[in-house]
Amino acid sequence: MSIKSTRGILMKASRDLNASWAQTRMQWTDGKAREFEERYLRPLPEALNSASTIIEELDRVLAKIRRDCE
Known about the structure:
The protein has 70 residues and is mostly helical. The chain has helices at 3-27, 31-41, 44-69.
């Protein structure tokens, strides 16, 4: 598995989670649902953006290492 494919897997998982949450949220409407959303789901996009940036940097570093070792 490549680093870039890992990034794609993370993005797909995020889309799947958002779709599942939208369905769940139609049924789960109490304060705990709002708390769950605030605590766990709202921070995810920023965390995924950070992870994506780090994954891209790792990919660049690994490519440089491969070139240097050839």
